[in-house]
Amino acid sequence: MRPFSGTMSVAGATRVRDRLAATPDGPLPALHTGPHAAYFAVERPGSDPWCLGVVGTQAAAVPNALRIAFRDLRSLDLGATHVLDGTLQLGSIRIRIGRLIDVQVPRRPITVPASDPAPLIARIGLGEGLTPYADDVLCGWLAIQRAAGVATPEVDQEVRAAVARTTLLSATLLDCALHGEVLPEFAAYVASLGTPDQPEREAALAAVGESSGEGLLAGARQALGVETEAA
Amino acid sequence: MSAAGTVHVELRGGAYADSVALLQVSRRVTDQPGVAAAQVAMATPLNVEVLTQMGFAVPAEATANDMVVAIRLAEDSAGDALDGALAAVDTALAGRGSAPGPAEVARPRTAGAALRGVPDALTLVSVPGASALVEAMDALDAGRDVMLFSDNVPVDQEVALKRVATERGLLVMGPDCGTAVLGGVGLGFANAVSPGPVGIVAASGTGCQQLLALLHHAGVGVGHALGVGGHDLSAEVGGLSTRDALLRLDRDPTVELVVLVSKPPAADVAAALEEYAASLATPVELAFLGAGRPDLTAVTERVLARLDRQVPAWPVVGRAEPLVQGGTVLHGLFVGGTLCEEAWLIASEIHGDQTSRACDFVDFGADELTQGRAHPMIDPTLRLEHLARVADDERTAGVLLDVVLGHGAEPDPAGRLAPAIEAARALRPLPVVVTMVGTDLDPQRLGDQLSALTAAGAETHFSNAGATRRALELLGGPR
Amino acid sequence: MNTPTHVVNVGADLFADALDAQAVPVTRVDWRPPMPGTEADLTTLALDPLRRDANARALAAVLEVRATLVDVSPASEVLGLQPGQFLHAGPPIGWDAASGPLRGALMGAAALEGLVDDPEDAVPLFAADAAVSLEPCHHRDAVGPMAGVVSPSMWMFVLEDSATGRRTTCSLNEGLGKVLRYGAYGREVLERLRWMGDVLGPLLQKAVRSAGPVDVTGILTQMLQMGDEAHNRNRAGTLMLLRDLAPAMVTSGADATEVAQALRFVGGNDHFFLNLAMPACKLALDAARSIEGSTMVVAMARNGTDFGIQTAGTGDEWFTGPAQLADGLFLGDYGPDDANPDIGDSAITESAGIGGFAMATAPAIVRLVGGTVPDALATTRRMHEITLGENPRWTVPVLDFQGTPTGIDVTLVCRTGILPQINTGMAGRVAGVGQVGAGLVSPPAEIFPKALSVLAARTRSRAATQGA
């Protein structure tokens, strides 16, 4: 059932809810709108801007997005997206976060050999599309550190310094990765490490997006110290 | 044209709607101009009793498959009030599940048809027991898990269904399962909780809900709570779903500790389960509730201890005072069966064989009181009426109530209960103690619920065991 | 244990509402109680360990059949039909219970065979059951439209499933108006029938034998995309058949006038292909007969008085109830009082997933039966609720090329109360009146619980003998 007015329930991560709640009233410029997903710029004085996603069931469920329970966003008034009283409005539809999603990568007792992500950091912003491939690789690398419980304070600082070079969405996803926040397919892949389900979960992750999933997997494998196939 | 004060009772065979939908229809008709009273319900024995008490004569040939439309017009109603009311009945009945417009596609008519379109859906079945297995088998035939809220499924059917599920590596949650949480999604009557390292396997809905709420409050999340239905641990069923559920949670790497909560199973079922639980990699806390066993709060505290987490002081909000004089009976009015039983067990520890003189506890969610009616977590009417009656009774010395929040429960329980408590206490300043089973993530706004109850004079506990002991304390010890 | 990405809710809306509020995609099933008294049998069948696989095999067997027209021959040769033996549409029936159109057709056939000179003289013969016998077409692996009467000298289409060699037959279609299958038995009816036996049949036989088998299943596949549904509309199919056979008819060596007559006759009869569609459907459905544990319908048939079904799992048993009156539009001055109850084996097309089941593909037919285009789409969609699967070859363009709903499941009919929808012509109640209209009709509901109960009894006795 598509509501054309009134309230619509979505699901989202706690941090998305909290950041939205702290956002002052005002319009959210659209960075990209498509039939299955839309991305908006969120600004707040004294804070870094970030990208809020609104995704349907067919789109990649990125951790910075609110998830809608149907497939096609075209019935929604995405051109009139704004914040009112700390909640998101899509035109006249008030968005209520009816379920909080756990977007944390699972903690696993995995060993991550020490590796230097400097080459990855240097490539932040290189590449095409909403999320450049190199950024996805770095996200994967960072998320594995978090899964292993490894803190990387210097790396984190360098990443934060470098994100201005890339798209707002990618910068937000890097920030999510720093927090250990991941796609459901990435979380499932990490949960499956060392189990018979691992090959299937790797394939499912690689299939996400056009190349984002492959990038995330590549970064994860680098972090795990797994031999990667020649490009 | 109809005379004022007219009573209209009609039977509609072949018409069907579930009890919650009929509740909404009844409300809408009652709101029509000129209508003094109205009830639209399936003619189950309980509903016929309610209709009779309302002054309607239900035809003797009415069966539970017939829908009764009963309307009484007000004395000063207009001539066409009955026509308007009947039109409102038809509109309201047609309004839900109406025929689609030309561009819309009709909804699927069976679980099987629905599952053809959806690759990996869980099926949730709440149709009458006689038809529940057929829908559940559609799910198993499609290779999917199923949750059966439906009750009154014969035991042999339950066993047959569960054997098929086990063979196929699928899970049957139920029959008679009202509560589940899967990866943060609440199914049936369930509370919204933070995700975390605990997995629950529960043969009781409100028992599960109490654990969910307390663990959430203690800052320990619950990843999944799997219901197995009220009969799974009987001798005949032998814990078939319980085993499947334990295995599922064992396999989930995010689950660090499993709690199995239920009434004590048949002896050999318990022994077999203990052996099975011990064979799993994940530690299992077996919580078989009953006389002399840890109550739900104590179970929660054990779980926290096993996870090396701090046990908080379970919150109490508001303050009740004992009656200065008069009254000897503590009335317990419960919507949660397990909460009612727990309260009774605790009362029995204190009052022994005098318990039934000192205490009168009613479970409004029990089968006899829910035949063809909505559950009290949705429709508080019966409980509120009972509250008014016991408040008026001089023998009453105190009242114990549970309020259960969460998905599926009514949107504002305190909104109806608080005024009733106030009205009750206006007659005599009875101590009213409430167990609040709910979290700050539940849709009902926990803070507002607590405020309303406190303003009405109730003392609210998060722990049912705590509330019960407090209510008994206010009553005074054995006389 | 994962977060559910979708939930199917069967029952109280409140659970679906709670899931909507959590932004979980939900499909709400519009559940209603099953046909009264069927709950126990439905449960027994749901638990039958054979059922799921048996139904899958039954459907697969039906879908695999390719029907080809291999011959045209008299019934006396192809069916071994003896003088005095008559076949008819629908389940078994005797003269006493037979309705006007069936009686008229039998009387005409008796005259055609020379048992009597005047068809009216056949009445005492049939009434006394003297030297005449009646049998359903289905019992001889045949089908017949409307009265469906077959007698020894009538020429039959012979269809074969080349993979197995199994065969079914059907008479040749006489056309519209005053024809035997509507119970007419006047002079022109008999003359036409004699011409069909003397000229048309032999010509078609030569053509088929020389041109080689005609791919009837292939024609059905194409005609469904051309506005035909193969029960009430067979125009494209008839033309494609003509295209396939005309050259061989011309070169058959028959007299040119006769060839022209035959071509004109076939070309002018938009229903000619019906008598190929029907045996093709029967050939496919017969592949599922005697699959123990299957709850699939293998035949729906009417004799003008009774409507009967047979299922894959109950052998030759017929489950019958009163044939219904169709609801639709009437020709000329005719009205509901003029219509005979439902008659004909043509419901074999719906049994195989076409005819009324494929209404969405034949928008033109919808107006003839008094419906609207949305009704037609809704009907085909509704038939998917009571069938086991879809036909991957026979697809409906306007429904995104979804396959036609195939394999009526008795359990699904009893669970949903949705009855198979049949598109049919209406015969006049009085013999010889002919067609009075066309419309929609369904089987009487009660035959499905009857079949269900026998299926369930078999399940129970199987379980008992296995000591389960």
Write up what this structure looks like.
The complex is a heterotrimer of chains A (231), B (479) and C (468). Chain A has helices at residues 14-21, 118-122, 133-147, 153-162, 168-178, 184-192, 198-206, 212-224; strands at 6-13, 26-27, 30-33, 37-42, 50-55, 65-67, 81-84, 87-90, 93-101. Chain A is an alpha+beta fold and 231 residues long. Chain A folds into 2 domains: 6-100, no CATH class; 118-224, no CATH class. Chain A has 8 helices and 9 strands. Chain A starts with 5 loop residues before the first strand and ends in a 7-residue tail after the last helix. Chain B is of the alpha/beta class and 479 residues long. Chain B is built from 17 helices and 18 strands. Chain B has helices at residues 19-30, 45-53, 81-95, 111-116, 129-141, 155-167, 205-217, 240-251, 267-278, 296-306, 337-351, 355-358, 367-370, 381-392, 413-427, 446-455, 464-475; strands at 7-13, 35-42, 66-73, 122-125, 146-148, 172-173, 179-182, 185-188, 198-202, 222-227, 257-262, 284-288, 316-317, 329-334, 359-363, 396-404, 432-437, 459-461. In chain B, the strands form 4 sheets. In chain B, strands 8-7-10-9-11-12 form a 6-stranded mixed sheet, with helices on both faces. A 6-stranded mixed sheet of chain B has the order 13-18-17-16-14-15, with helices on both faces. In chain B, strands 1-3-2 form a 3-stranded antiparallel sheet, with helices on both faces. Chain C is 37% helix and 20% strand. Chain C has helices at residues 13-20, 39-46, 51-64, 75-78, 100-112, 122-128, 187-211, 216-223, 235-250, 256-267, 274-286, 348-351, 363-368, 373-383, 410-416, 447-465, and strands at 7-10, 26-29, 67-74, 85-88, 133-136, 142-143, 155-161, 166-171, 214-215, 297-303, 306-311, 319-322, 327-330, 343-344, 387-396, 402-408, 422-427, 435-441. Chain C is α+β, with helices and mostly antiparallel strands. The model of chain C has no long low-confidence stretch (mean pLDDT 95). The radius of gyration of chain C is 23 Å and the shape is globular. Chain C has a 5-stranded mixed sheet. The longest helix of chain C has 25 residues, at 187-211. The chains are: A alpha+beta (231), B alpha/beta (479), C alpha+beta (468). At the B-C interface, helix 1, helix 4, strand 4, helix 5 and helix 6 of B face strand 1, helix 1, strand 2, helix 2 and helix 14 of C.
